Amino acid sequence: MIIINKTMKGNSLSIGIVGLPNVGKSTLFSAITKKQVDCANYPFCTIEPNIGVVAVSDKRLDALAELLHAVKKIYATIEFIDIAGLVKGAHKGEGLGNQFLAHIREADAIVYLLRLFPNTVIVNTQPAVDPIKEKEILDTELALKDLETLEKRAGALEKEVKAGSKESLKESGAVNKALNFLKEGLILNEQEWDEEERKILKNYQLLTLKPRLYLLNGEAGEKSAASMEFFKKNNLPFLVMDVLAEQEVIDFSAPERESLGLSAESQLEVLIKKSYELLELITFFTTLSSEHRAWPIKKGTKIPQAGGVIHSDFEKNFIRAEVIVWQNLLNVGGFGRAREKGLIRTEGKEYVVQDGDVIVIKSGA
């Protein structure tokens, strides 16, 4: 499983790599971050989480930096965390379950890392290679932990409702709705919620309420067809990747990859982008003489709140902003020509930032 935690202040995302033991978590972490970690062949090899930070490559930022002669460019970043494997009974503390659950509570999304490769040399903690069964184990453990969390709260809320608390009545409704879904074996993130219910439930850091991406570690082919069909049929976002193969060619250029019959784009880059998209994030850019920078924000964010990602004063003292689409800026060759052609717009507080906007924020003292 990979966990994604938005930490917008600091321009970074945090992603934890988690799954059952020996599914390739540490190999994936090593490939993405190019850091050497212990990949020994036994369960719970990873006890303390390994952490590494990588940049989210963005050709738009590269082009802007070249056009405007930036001294430096700063990409959005992702923090990758390799967390210990989960086993049956994790919700009760089996294996390293309590530690596992503690690490993912702060996360905003989860990507299940599931074993698809048949290598008999690598110890499999399950009777057979079965990504769907692994998914079920992870689902069950997370759901049982959520049940435990909500049942404790439901009892207290019942007393508060009887005492006449209107706020507790709303909260109790959302909690009991979630409990009913969990008792039916349903994943909370796949159910319908209104904005207020989601806001209430977010306070509980529920594990099954987080969006998720499924990464199948192995080769796409006849043996993996049934697993892939399962995820397609259920409209579940997934990616098939041979993690070990990607690790071996991590430093290869696009032409070198193609010469080996691989796609020009690294599948690790695809994973990073899919992880970024999973939270419905977009990117806007700021350009200064000394620095060009990419900033991740939630889709639908208004411009004062986008400014707040850069500095809290920009949101608090927002006046207006100048905005231009990155491609338009690139096409005309700079801000001077863009102004002449009327391509730079002045936007107020209600403007919703679009992916690829280049923004200059004007704020008061």
Describe the structure.
By secondary structure, the chain is α/β, with parallel strands linked by helices. 39% of the residues lie in helices and 21% in strands. The chain has 14 helices and 13 strands. The protein has helices at residues 25-33, 59-67, 97-104, 131-162, 166-183, 195-202, 225-233, 243-248, 254-259, 267-278, 303-310, 312-316, 326-332, 335-340, and strands spanning 2-7, 12-17, 50-55, 72-74, 77-82, 109-115, 212-217, 238-241, 281-287, 291-298, 318-325, 345-347, 357-363. The protein has a seven-stranded mixed β-sheet, with helices on both faces. The chain has a three-stranded mixed β-sheet with strand order 4-10-9, sandwiched between helices. β9 (281-287) and β10 form a beta hairpin. The protein is flat and about 65 Å long. The protein starts with a strand and ends with a strand. The model is unreliable at 6-11, 35-47 and 93-98 (pLDDT under 50).
